[in-house]
Structure formats: C-alpha cells, structure tokens
C-alpha cells in the first residue's frame, strides 16, 4: 500500500511523467543537455509552468464547486452563530476555501464588518484567506512533501486565529473607517436555487478568472525560480540566506513585503531557494510575506481601516511570520 501511495504521489502530484516528457523534449527536441544551465533552466520553466497550471485548474475547479455552497451571506451567518475563540477558528477555516489573494479578501472583510461581526473574526478570515488555501496545500505537497504542506497549513491557521484574537482583545473597532459600517448587507442566500449545472458553470468561470489573474505571476515566479536554480551560484545564496545565517528570515520578510504575487507564483521561487540550501523556514517566510503582507494589499486595506489598526495588523502578522520562519528552520529535519 505504501508503494502505491508513493507512486500516486509521484505521478499525480509531482507529475514525474511530465518531468520525463520535458526531459525528452529538451534533449531530443531542443538538442540540449537537461543538466546544463540552459537546458536545466528550460526544463525547470516548462515543467513547472505546465504542472502548476494543470494542478491549479483542477484544484480551483474542485474548490470553487465546494465554495458555491458558501456564498458570502451564508458564510457571514455561519460566523455570526459563533462567539469567542470558536468563531476565530471557524473564520480561519472558512478562509481556506476562498482561493483568492489578500486584495480579493478585503471586500469580504468589508461585508463581514458591516454585518456586525467582531473584528477578531474578520481579521482571522483576512489573514487566513490569502495565506492558506486548499490549492496551496496540494501544490506545496507536489513541490516538497505532505508533512511540510500540512505543517504550513497548521501554522498558518494558528497565526490567523491568534492574530485575529489579539486584534479583537485590543478593542480597535473605532479604527475602522466609518463607511465600512454603513455598507449595505444583503441577507439573500440563493444557495437552494443553484443547480448542479450552475455550480459547474461557476467553478469553470472561477478557473478562467483566477488563471487569468495569476498566470503572469506564475510565469514570473517560475522564471525567477529557474534563474535561481540554474544560474545563481549556491555559494552566493548560502552566504546571503543560508541556514546558518540568523538574519535570513528577516531578509526574506523584508524582500517579500514589497512584492505582489499569488502564492502560486511564489512556490517555484521557494522551491528553487530550498534546493540551493536556503532554510525551509526562510523560504516559507518569503511566501507568507508576499501573500499576506504585500504592499498593494496593505494600500487597499488602508482604505478601510485607520493607520493605528493597520500598523497593529502588520506588526502582528510580521512578528508571527518571523517566528514561524525561525521555528521551521530549527525543526526542518522533522519534515524531510
């Protein structure tokens, strides 16, 4: 049974068959050595792009079909029935079935806040939604392994719950812009009127929309990953971000924040960094900083919250991400 599971993981998630086909293409079609810098870069780029888009399309379709049962109004009602830490946990878990970037999560944040949900709940959702989703779990498993993927999800959910809880304890409701509380909220939930055909259509539309939104970031991310993997000397990367460098997690956070990319675009970069000897925690810190604290999403969030609340949010998430990075670096041997 174990051998069967390993085979399925290699062929379905890691797509070893695709890697073999791309190797043949590079060697026989392009006349290049797949182990050379040029041939290796082309192999890395073609293989990762095709693999990510295949997995992304299948996963987004499946997740969106499930998500069709949880429109914003229904999600809001589910959250409204919970209180305290339980509500934060539910909010973080619901965030995992919304495969969107942080900018796309902000309209839902406005809807939840205007509906009277506590800030603790809305911020747990806001942290979880871009940081942890079901698609990223599968993609992480396809690039690294299941233990790393599940550990990433668990720690991301903990950060979302604790971050939201702490913001709630600080009583910063007056730091939300006034118009947010005045936004109209619909109580209509047409879940029962949606047929299976409509759900399939909705899921297909989500695949097209999300792929259209992230394709450029995926290409850029894979391109950077190919360059790191095949052209940047390992000694240089180790000197800057090596596992023995205490500042590597801080540098990864600082570099990641100004960027704007989906987690699907950052995964190939993280993969290449780890293969070059960068600590697992450092690579995951970079991913988290890009997805949860990107500069464009912070600019958008500033439109709906006042500066003190924005600073608190950034501070809590930044400290959490840094601690997670150091924790993963110290315990990486448990996941490989």
TrEMBL record:
It is a multi-pass membrane protein. It comes from the Bacteria. The keyword Nucleotidyltransferase does not apply. InterPro entries: DUF318, UPF0718_permease. One of its GO terms (cellular component) is plasma membrane. Its main location: membrane. It holds the Pfam family ArsP_1. It is found in: Cell membrane. Belongs to the UPF0718 family. This is Permease. The lineage of its organism: Bacteria, Pseudomonadati, Pseudomonadota, Alphaproteobacteria, Rhodobacterales.
